[in-house]
Design brief:
By secondary structure, the chain is α/β, with parallel strands linked by helices. The chain has a single domain, classed as 3-Layer(aba) Sandwich (Rossmann fold). The chain has 10 helices and 10 strands. The strands form 2 sheets. The protein has a 6-stranded mixed β-sheet with strand order 6-7-8-3-9-10, with helices on both faces. Strands 2-1-4-5 form a 4-stranded antiparallel β-sheet, with helices on one face. Strand 7 (171-175), helix 7 (183-200) and strand 8 form a beta-alpha-beta unit. Helix 4 packs across helix 5, helix 4 packs parallel to helix 6 (153-165) and helix 6 packs parallel to helix 7. The structure holds adenosine-5'-triphosphate and magnesium ion. Adenosine-5'-triphosphate (ATP) binds at residues 14, 22, 40, 42-48, 58, 60-61, 209.
Length: 274
Amino acid sequence: MSEILNIQDLNIYPANAPGRYLVKQASLSLARGKTTCIVGESGSGKSLTALSIMRLLSPQLRMQGRVVFQGQDLSQLSEREMQAIRGRQIGMIFQEPMTSLNPVLTIGFQIGEPLQTHLALKGAALKQKVAELLTQVGIDPTRANSYPDELSGGQRQRVMIAMSIACQPALLIADEPTTALDVTVQAQVLRLLDELKQRLNMAMLFITHDFGVVADIADDVIVMFRGEIVEAGPVSQVLDAPQHPYTRALLACVPDAEGKKVLQPIRYDWLTPA
Ligand SMILES: Nc1ncnc2c1ncn2[C@@H]1O[C@H](COP(=O)(O)OP(=O)(O)OP(=O)(O)O)[C@@H](O)[C@H]1O
Ligand SMILES: [Mg+2]
C-alpha cells in the first residue's frame, strides 16, 4: 500500500483555551488511489482536520501532533516551502465554492493561476492546458472567458475542481464540495471526482455528513464525534457493522427504503472522559 499522508495524534485547540480540544488525538493514514471519507455532525472537527493538513488553521488556533506527507513532516517546513506544496502537491476544494472564486476574474484566468505559479506555464501552453482542464471537468473550453456569475452552481464547482487538480496533486482534499448542489448535479460531480482520482492516482480525503455519498465513493471511512475519531475502517465494515453507538445513530438518520427518516438521540457520554 502506498501511504501518502499520515497524521499522528493531532490535537487542535484555541490558543486562549488549551484544555478545550476541538480535535483530540486524531490519527489517520491515506493511500494513493483511495478515497477516505470523514463523516460526522456539524462542529465535529472535520474541516479543522483538513485545514491543519494544509497548515491553514486560523491564527487563534494551535495544533499538536505529526502530519507527515510523502515522508516529510509538514510542521517542520517554512511557510514558503508550505506554499510550494499547497495547490501543487495537495489540492483543496473548500466548503463554499461561491466565496472561493474571485468574481472579477475569468474562470480561465483562475484555473491558469496555479499553473503559472507552480509550473511556470505561460502563453499558448498555458491556454492549451486550461482548455484541457475545462474539457476534463465537462465544461466547454470556449467558456474560459466567462466570469463565475455567468455559470451555474454545478459549473462553478467544476471550475473549483479544475483549479484543484490543475497541477496533478498527489492528494486532493474536498470539504463538502457537493452540499450546495441539487441531487443530480451532486451525483455528476461525485462521479467526476471519482474518475479524476483514479486517472491521476490521487489520494482523496472527502468530507461529508451524507452517508449516501460515503456509500457511493468511499474506500475507507472515518467517523468524527466532538473532535474525536470514534470509528474508522473500510466502508463495507463501517456501514454494515458499525461498532460505535454514534455511528449507529448517524446511520439511523439516513432515510430508509420508504424515505422515512429515523432520528435517534445522541448521547454525550459516549466519549471517553477528558
Ligand atoms: N477559529 C476558531 N476558534 C474557535 N473555535 C473554532 C474555530 N474554528 C472552528 N472552531 C470550532 O471547532 C469546532 C470544529 O469546527 P469544524 O469547522 O472543524 O467543524 P465541521 O465538522 O467541519 O462542521 P461542519 O459540518 O458544520 O462544517 C466547532 O465547534 C467550531 O465552532
Ligand atoms: Mg466543515
